[in-house]
Specification:
heterodimer; A: mainly alpha; Helix Hairpins; 3 helices; 79% helix; elongated; B: mainly alpha; two-stranded antiparallel ribbon; 25 helices; 2 strands; globular
Amino acid sequence: MDKIQFLVAISVALFALGLLGVIVRRNVLIMLMCMELMLNGVNLSLVAFAQQAASAAGAVLVFMVFVVATAEVAIAIPIVLLLVRRKDALDLDAYADLKG
Amino acid sequence: MSRHLLTLIVLLPLLGFLLNGLLGNRLGKRFVSAVGCGLPILAFAVAVKCFLDLRAGGTPLIDTVYTWADIGGSGFEVAFYFDALSAVMALIVTGVGSLIHVYSIGYMKEDSSYARYFAYLNLFLFFMLSLVLGRSLLVLFVGWEGVGLASYLLIGFWFEDPEKARAGKKAFITNRIGDAGFLLGMFLLYQALGTLDADRINAAFMAPVPPAVSASLLGILLFIGACGKSAQIPLHVWLPDAMAGPTPVSALIHAATMVTAGVYMVSRLSGIYMHAPEASAVVATIGAATAFFAATIAIAQNDIKKVLAYSTISQLGFMFVAAGVGAYGVAIFHLYTHAFFKACLFLGAGSVIHALGGEQDLRRMGGLARKIPVTFATFAVATAAIAGIPPLAGFFSKDEILWYAFASSTGGSPLLFGVAAATALLTAFYMFRLLWLTFFGASRMSKEVEHHVHESPLSMTGVLVVLAALSAVGGFLALPQFLGSLLPLPEVVPALEHYETTLVVTSIVIAFAGLAAAAFVYGDSGERAERLRGSLSGLYRVLSGKYFIDEAYDRLIGRPLYWISERVFFRLGDQKIIDGTLHGLAALGRRTAGGFSRVQTGSLHLYALLVLIGIIASLAWSFRHG
C-alpha cells in the first residue's frame, strides 16, 4: 500500500465517520463537528490526488472548501444559538416541528 | 345612380332598421312611425320605377354591388337581379309590406317596444328583398336565413311569455332542418356547375347538353329547404305556433311573404325542376297532401289565427301543386293573390282581436258584423276571395291551379285534381265557418268585452279596405301570361282541352257548395254544428288535435333525442368520461403527493440518511453505466 492509497483510505474513513455522526448523533453541535469532519475528509482526498497528478488545481479547491466551511460555521453557530434560546435544548429532535 | 336602384330597394329598409334600432327609443313614436313606414314606401316607389324600366328595356336589370370571393375561374358576387319574376315578388313584398307597416301604427300603438317592433319589421323587409332580388343562390340564402332570424325575433316579440319564446325557437329549429337540405343542394349545384347564379343555373339546364348532375336529386334537396320555409309536410309544425307573434307579423311574414319564399325558390330554379320529373312529382304530391291535410285541421280549430295559419299552409300546398305540375307562373299568380287576401284576413283578424281586447277564441265571438262593419266587410270580401267565389282574385288563381293539376302534360292527373278540388271545398267550408262564427249569429262575448267593442282606427281600416279591393280585383291581372316568357306554362294534354269550361263550372260549384255547407251547419245558433260534432266525435278529436303530429314528433324525435343527450352525452360523456378523467388525474396527483409527504418528518437524521441512500444509489448506477 503506497502513500496515496493510504491517504485516500484515511480520507474515506474520515468522511464515513462524519456521515455516520451526522446520521446517528442527536446533538446539534456534534453534528456540525461531524460535517466539518466530512469536509476535511474530502479535503484530504483532494490534496492527495493533487499531489499524485502534480497539479495545483486540487490545492486551490481546498482553499475554496476552507472558505465555504468557515462561512457555513459562521452562519450555523448563530442559528444554533437562536434555536437553543428558544427551546433550551440541543437535541435536534426537539425541533422536528419546524417541518413545512 | 340609376344603375344602383336595385341596391337602393334593398338598403332602404336596412336604413330603417338601423335608425329605429339605434335611435328609435330616444326620438319617440312619431319618428319611429315615419321612418318605419316611410322607408318601405320609398322602397316600393323605387321598385315601381325599376319595374317600369324593366318593361321599357325588356332585359333583366343586373346590379353588381361587389365581388365577394374570387375563386379561380368562378366566384361569388353580391349582385341583384331584376326580371319579371323578381319584379312581381319585389312589388308584393314592398307593397303589401308597406301596407302592413302602416297598419301596425294603429295595432302596436300601445306597445312599450314600439321602436323595436318597427326595427325588426324593417330588418325583415331588408332580408326578404335580398332573398327575392339576389342573383346568386348565396345572396338568396343570406336573405333566407335572415328572414328566418327576423321571423324568430318577431314570433318571440313578447318574449316575457315563455310560451311565445318557445314558439320562436320551434320555428327557428324546424327551419334549420330544411336549410340543411337547401345547403346540400347548393353544394351539389356549385360542384356541378361552378356557379350559383340563378339565371346561369337555369341556362345551364336549358342548354342542349344538360349538366352531369341528377336534376331530381338537386330538386328534392332544394325542395327540403322549401318545405321548411313554406311549412309543408313534414316540416309544417312551426307555422301554427308562429301565431304567437303580433298579428301584423303573422300577416306579413307568416302569410304574405316569407312563407312563400319556398314557392319563389322553386319557380326561380324552374330550369332544374323542368328536367326533374321525379322531383316535380314529389313537389306536387307533398303540396297536395299538405293542402288537404291542413284544410281538414283548419275545420276544427277554435283560435281565429290558428284557422288562418292552417289555411296558409293549405294555400301554400296549392302553390306547390301548381309548381309540381310545371305551372310555375300559376304558382306565382296564386302567391300574388294569396298575399292580398290572406294579408287582409290576418289584418282583419287583428282588427277583431283589437276590438275584443285580445280575445282570439271563436267560441267567445259572434255577432260582430254590425259592431265593426268595415272589418266585417273587408273580411267577407277576402273570405270570398280565398274560397274562390268569382270574380274575386282567389277564384282565378285557384281555378288555374285546378285546371293544370287536371290537364298538365307534366304531372297532371285526375287524382291530383280530386285532392285539390276536395281541398278547395274544405277551404270554402272552413273560411265561411270562420266568417259565421266571428261575425254572425248571437254574441257569445262576456258583457264587459261586448261593451268595449269598437271599430279600429283609420290607419288599420284604411289598409283593410285597400287590401280588400286588391283581393277583389287582383285576379284580373293576367300574371301567368306576363311571366310567360320567363316561366312558360306547361302543355295541356290535347284530349283534355275541351274540359276547360266544365272545370271552371266545377270550381264555381265547389266554392258555393262550401259556402252553402258552412251556412247550413253554422247558420242556426250552433245546434247543427253541435250535433255534427257529437256524431263525429272521434274524427273531431283527431282534427282538433292536429292529427297529434306534435305529440308524435315529441315521442319519436324529441324524447329520444332528449334521452340520448341526457343519458349518453351528458351523464356518460360529460360527467363520467370528461369530468371523470379530470377528477381522476387530480386524485392521482393528490394521492401521490400524499405518499411522498410522509417522507417530510422534520427529522434531519432521516434526511441525511436519505441523502446517503441517494448518493449510494447514484454512485452504484453511475458505476454500472460508467
